[in-house]
């Protein structure tokens, strides 16, 4: 039990530090896409800028309006980050996961579904129409894409005959699932962007019509916790993408693929404009869902024929 706690704390702190450097990577990539330098003053080449931002945010005074539900405003950003941290033990590090059971994919389903409620609480508790509208958009978007999100994971589970990320990684020792499933990988990456409310699907944070969206009433440490939860979810989904399509994270190639997928998620923000909301829903219900259901039925019949 003591070793488990030490490993969990070590991995959690490492991922939190990686989230800090992930933010500076995003700002640098967006800077070069827009032909500017990005942060380059704090530390060597601006590498300490995330820590400077964290100190500034957590030292700010927290103000709230008299209509705000104080208890939910305090706890909902922290719980949103806590749900992201709870996903860390089910990752398969170095051929084993910190929480090793045979059905950790089902645990991932549960945790990713719970995160929807905390986004809704963040928007509702501030008692602002802009933030409430942003949270409604976010919940509708995440629920719509969770259907195809879970079906794509179920497709990989059928291929590997397992509900464990460890078994899925081990079943790819001959050939990664990436080969022959390129359409599935593209659908998965687009769904990951929609699940994490990232551009071009960032409707919950539309500055032009929602004045920053569901986090408009949050400042300082509250905003930092929401920010950390979003970027940690992106890193975790990048790790899961590698375990599902590119063997595992136990070698240098796996970690290079994690870095590449993480950069692609950032690159898309600087390349594509925001979708229309009706196009987002049509993409989910009229394109991704039928394809996912067809692939699931086909793979189940194919496996039954092989048995």
Automatic annotation (TrEMBL):
Entries under InterPro entries matching the protein: NADH_UbQ_OxRdtase_su1/FPO, NADH_UbQ_OxRdtase_su1_CS
Parts of the chain that traverse the membrane: 6-25, 70-93, 105-124, 145-163, 175-194, 222-246, 252-271, 283-302
EC numbers: 7.1.1.2
One biological process term in Gene Ontology: aerobic respiration
Root EC class: translocase
Keyword presence, DNA damage: no
Topology class, membrane: Multi-pass membrane protein
UniProt keyword annotations, A-Z: Membrane, Mitochondrion, NAD, Transmembrane, Transmembrane helix, Transport, Ubiquinone
UniProt catalytic activity: a ubiquinone + NADH + 5 H(+)(in) = a ubiquinol + NAD(+) + 4 H(+)(out)
Record's keyword annotation contains Heme: no
GO MF annotation: an example: NADH dehydrogenase activity
GO cellular component: mitochondrial inner membrane
Protein's cellular compartments: Mitochondrion inner membrane; Mitochondrion membrane
Source superkingdom: Eukaryota
One Pfam family it belongs to: NADHdh
Record family assignment: Belongs to the complex I subunit 1 family.
HAMAP family, alphabetized: NDH1_NuoH
General function of this protein: Core subunit of the mitochondrial membrane respiratory chain NADH dehydrogenase (Complex I) that is believed to belong to the minimal assembly required for catalysis. Complex I functions in the transfer of electrons from NADH to the respiratory chain. The immediate electron acceptor for the enzyme is believed to be ubiquinone.
Protein name (Swiss-Prot/TrEMBL): NADH-ubiquinone oxidoreductase chain 1
Organism expressing this protein natively: Cheliceroides longipalpis
């Amino acid at each position: 039990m003591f070793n488990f706690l030490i490993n969990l704390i070590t991995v959690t702190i490492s991922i939190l530090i990686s989230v800090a450097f992930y933010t500076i990577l995003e700002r640098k990539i967006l800077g070069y896409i827009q032909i500017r330098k990005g942060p380059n003053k704090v530390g060597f080449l601006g590498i300490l800028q995330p820590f400077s931002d964290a100190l500034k945010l957590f030292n700010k005074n927290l103000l709230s309006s008299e209509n705000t539900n104080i208890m939910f405003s305090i706890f909902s950003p922290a719980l949103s980050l806590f749900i992201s941290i709870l996903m860390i033990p089910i990752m398969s590090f170095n051929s084993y996961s910190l929480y090793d059971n045979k059905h950790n994919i089902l645990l991932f389903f549960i945790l990713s579904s719970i995160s929807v409620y905390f986004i809704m609480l963040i928007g509702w508790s501030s008692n602002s129409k802009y933030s409430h509208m942003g949270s409604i958009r976010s919940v509708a978007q995440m629920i719509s894409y969770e259907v195809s999100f879970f079906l794509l994971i179920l497709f990989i589970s059928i291929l590997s005959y397992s509900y464990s990320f460890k078994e899925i990684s081990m079943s790819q020792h001959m050939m990664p699932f990436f080969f022959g499933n390129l359409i599935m990988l593209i659908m998965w990456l687009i769904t990951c962007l929609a699940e994490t409310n990232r551009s071009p699907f960032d409707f919950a944070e539309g500055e032009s019509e929602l004045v920053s969206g569901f986090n408009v009433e949050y400042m300082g440490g509250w905003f930092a916790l929401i920010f950390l939860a979003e970027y940690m979810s992106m890193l975790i989904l990048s790790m899961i993408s590698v375990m599902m399509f590119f063997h595992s994270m136990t070698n240098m190639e796996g970690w290079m693929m994690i870095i590449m997928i993480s950069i692609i998620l950032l690159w898309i923000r600087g390349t594509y404009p925001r979708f229309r909301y009706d196009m987002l829903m049509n993409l989910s219900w009229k394109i991704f869902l039928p394809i996912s259901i067809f692939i699931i039925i086909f793979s189940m019949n194919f496996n039954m024929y092989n048995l």
